Sequence to fold (340 residues):
Amino acid sequence: MKKGNRELVRIQSVLENDRLSAGDNFFELLMGDLEKILQEFFEYSDAPTLSIDKCGDGYKVNFSITASRLRSFGCLPK
Amino acid sequence: MANKIVVTSGKGGVGKTTVVANLGIALCDLGLRVALIDVDFGLNNLDVVLGVENKVVYDILDVFEGRCRIKQALIQCGEHKNLFVLPSGSAKGNNIISGQNLSVILENLSPLFDYILIDCPAGIDVGFHRAVCCADSALVVATPNLTSLRDADKVISILKSYRMQKISLIINRARGDLITGQKMMNPLDVQALLKTQLVGVLPEEDAVFLSVGNKLPKKCESKKAYKILASNLHIGNKKIFDVTCKYNGIFGSIRRGLKNKI
Fold:
């Protein structure tokens, strides 16, 4: 493989790793925010799970919870 | 109102200031009014690259602290009647001038010019954010090597959070002989890698190195490349300067062989 192509492959993998790595508190913050919203709509006891996987050019984000019941509430019409 | 464009890179030494100066001249040659703003406090070199360092009386800090009016601090660049530079002074400005202050200064300049090019400091610290927050669009300058491209990718991701009208890429110091011999990354591959529109490819040339403080010779390749870049920006053309054309074919391979030996 020529040097130009080798460098291209190398930078591709470097950028892929850079783009994948989130900040230190990324997962904590994301889970905290999502839980805060979901707690207003569902009742659940198990801890939610989060997974982020590379998928083509982007990422597949899976967030799941097992809810025991949906919170019922009234709201004002728009 | 002027189109405010920040020229940034992340990595230092890729040629931001040279690009700002020569792109300013190329836009001016198209008959446009251009202001070049140096916001690299303490490491300011735009005045030197343009050869007007002896004309500096006031700088951007003097404007901000009220010692002069903006028009008094603007320096006309030699024979280019519509090209002006607003120099920056000591590193003191780093602690005094905020992004909002700079925005006010640029807003005052905006009705007077067609383009305002902002020379951003290297890095992604306060100086970078101060320069970027005042701009409508950004030009990211990168050289075709790993370190520069990695930094450019990080800078592009930060620029996206500013919701700019447009973020474009310039590949500087491209070597046609190395690209043809597949020893250097092709600018089009880099464009695909960074997922950012390429608006210009500028060749590595001795004339650029030797022209600091002087204008580029009329017949050099870089002059043509800057002309194409300026029309891409202003008219919206999508033409890219071909740095490899000199090195294709039989004569091209001889030229390449000679360059490799040197």
